[in-house]
């Protein structure tokens, strides 16, 4: 378990941090002692998170930009690093996803999913790596990926493709950046209770299906945030190119797991 102020003196940038997993990550990084640059495409939605971080006694900086646009990502990373005098941690959490069968999916939505959920993490990792190499003090890059990287979830082909690419990108970057002492890791969240889930499911469905999961509930954004803190903790320096799964057992064969005996015959 990470110590309470294990990230004191470090600077983090979190994309998609106005709500959901990104917000949970930003707040947990602040609780661990980091100053945080808060990104979201909706500039007006960043202010409450900035205020929460400052209430924790940490510095915060709003960096609104579209995480799927290379020039915007590079400018946002520069703004954060210039404001704080460097950057030590970046977390790619911004995503976009539509769900339709691929043969009749809106190509605009399909391409936007790839742009934000695949190219976005690459743009951020590349810009961060260049800055961290220049700083010569190491660093951490964390990609919030998904079990969609290896599960062929129907209706989510673009998202599945994007997350599979992100996982391979992160592992490759971990190898290429190791000699710079820049660690790159991946988190696979399970079904997390976020505003984004309301795009696809009703409140009643989330409550009902969440209660049926092995751990009996949906995950919470702060639980993913604590995983990010663990990976970025200097005490975890031997962890790179790894995937941390935080899913309450959702990927276990739990539908079969509870068949403790054969059903009686007729």
Averaged pLDDT: 93
Which structural class fits the helix and strand makeup?
alpha/beta
What's the β-strand tally? 7
C-alpha end-to-end distance: 52 Å
Strand content: 5-15%
- Give helix and strand order, one letter per element, not per position: EHEHEHEHEHEHHEH
| Radius of gyration, CA atoms, in whole angstroms | 19 Å
Oligomer: single chain
Q: What's the CATH superfamily, by name?
A: NAD(P)-binding Rossmann-like Domain
The description of the largest β-sheet is:
7 strands, parallel
Q: Quick one: overall form?
A: globular
| DSSP helical segment count | 8
What's the helix and strand layout?
Elements: E1 11-14, H1 20-31, E2 35-38, H2 47-55, E3 60-62, H3 70-84, E4 89-92, H4 107-135, E5 139-144, H5 157-177, E6 182-189, H6 203-211, H7 221-232, E7 243-246, H8 254-257
Parallel strand pairs: 1-2, 1-4, 2-3, 4-5, 5-6, 6-7
What do these coordinates show?
By secondary structure, the protein is α/β, with parallel strands linked by helices. It has a single domain (11-257), classed as Rossmann fold (3-Layer(aba) Sandwich). It has helices spanning 20-31, 47-55, 70-84, 107-135, 157-177, 203-211, 221-232, 254-257; strands spanning 11-14, 35-38, 60-62, 89-92, 139-144, 182-189, 243-246. It has a seven-stranded parallel β-sheet with strand order 3-2-1-4-5-6-7, with helices on both faces. Helix 1 (20-31) crosses helix 7 (221-232), helix 3 runs parallel beside helix 4 and helix 4 packs parallel to helix 5. The longest helix has 29 residues, at 107-135. The protein is globular.
């Amino acid at each position: 378990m990470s110590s309470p102020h294990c990230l004191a003196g470090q600077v983090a940038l979190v994309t998609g941090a106005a709500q959901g997993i990104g917000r949970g990550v930003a707040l947990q990084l602040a609780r661990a002692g980091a100053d945080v640059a808060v990104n979201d495409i909706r500039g007006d939605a960043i202010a409450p998170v900035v205020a929460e971080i400052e209430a924790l006694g940490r510095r915060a900086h709003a960096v609104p930009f579209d995480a799927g646009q290379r020039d915007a990502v590079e400018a946002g990373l520069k703004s954060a690093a210039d404001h704080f005098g460097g950057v030590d941690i970046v977390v790619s959490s911004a995503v976009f996803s539509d769900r339709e069968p691929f043969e009749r999916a809106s190509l605009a939505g399909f391409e936007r999913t790839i742009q934000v959920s695949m190219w976005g993490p690459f743009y951020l990792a590349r810009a961060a790596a260049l800055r961290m190499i220049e700083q010569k003090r190491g660093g951490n890059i964390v990609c919030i990926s998904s079990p969609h990287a290896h599960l062929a979830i129907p209706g989510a082909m673009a998202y599945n493709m994007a997350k599979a690419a992100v996982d391979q990108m992160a592992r490759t970057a971990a190898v290429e950046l190791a000699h710079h002492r820049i660690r790159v890791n991946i988190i696979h969240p399970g079904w997390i209770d976020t505003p984004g889930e309301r795009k696809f499911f009703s409140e009643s469905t989330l409550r009902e299906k969440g209660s049926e999961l092995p751990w009996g509930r949906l995950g919470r954004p702060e639980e993913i945030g604590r995983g990010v803190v663990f990976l970025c903790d200097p005490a975890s320096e031997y962890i790179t190119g790894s995937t941390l799964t935080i899913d309450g057992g959702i990927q276990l064969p739990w539908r079969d797991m509870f068949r403790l005996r054969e059903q009686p015959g007729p």
